[in-house]
């Protein structure tokens, strides 16, 4: 069961995201007609955030990853349908341990949320394009992707 609580007034979500870089590019997900986002998903009850990340990459991309280090913690506020969502998200640097996915271009995959299938494009986007302003949500995370420091960072993103 995902750690995702909803009532009439708001949604609370505990999510984890993986920063996968290869040859000067980052792998991002994009639902149809939407902006890029970091690949990941909701942490399941009694599952560690790292276990979640490995499971999500296997489910969505059929790729095996190793989790490297915690990069950032985000407190993110955004609209979830008609309700406000308060999300805590942990972002980790990760790397592939197999070559089951294309290492360039765009390929298809999907996710399931609330028993609904969401088709996704997985896109290798150059870090140069990120520097030039390609939008990736949450926007506040981009500088830390481009220039990772030695410390874990914390950011707040308010889209409502």
UniProtKB/TrEMBL annotation:
Protein name: NUDIX domain-containing protein
Pfam families: NUDIX
Origin species: Lachnospira hominis (ex Liu et al. 2021)
Span of domain Nudix hydrolase: 1-147
Family matches, as InterPro entries: NUDIX_hydrolase-like_dom_sf (IPR015797), NUDIX_hydrolase_CS (IPR020084), NUDIX_hydrolase_dom (IPR000086)
Superkingdom classification of source: Bacteria
Cofactor(s) needed: Mg(2+)
Swiss-Prot/TrEMBL keywords: Hydrolase
């Amino acid at each position: 069961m995902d750690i995702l609580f909803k009532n009439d007034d708001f949604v609370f979500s505990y999510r984890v995201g993986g920063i996968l870089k290869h040859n000067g590019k980052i792998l991002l997900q994009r639902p149809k007609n939407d902006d890029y986002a970091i690949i990941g998903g909701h942490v399941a009850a009694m599952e560690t955030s790292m276990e979640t990340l490995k499971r999500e990459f296997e489910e969505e991309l059929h790729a095996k990853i190793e989790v490297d280090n915690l990069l950032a913690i985000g407190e993110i506020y955004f609209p979830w349908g008609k309700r406000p969502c308060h999300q805590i998200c942990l972002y980790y640097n990760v790397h592939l341990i197999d070559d089951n996915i294309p290492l360039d271009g765009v390929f298809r995959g999907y996710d399931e949320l609330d028993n609904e299938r969401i088709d996704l494009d997985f896109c290798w986007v150059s870090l140069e394009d990120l520097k030039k302003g390609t939008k990736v949500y949450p926007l506040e995370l981009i500088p830390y992707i481009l220039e990772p420091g030695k410390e874990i960072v914390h950011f707040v993103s308010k889209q409502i």
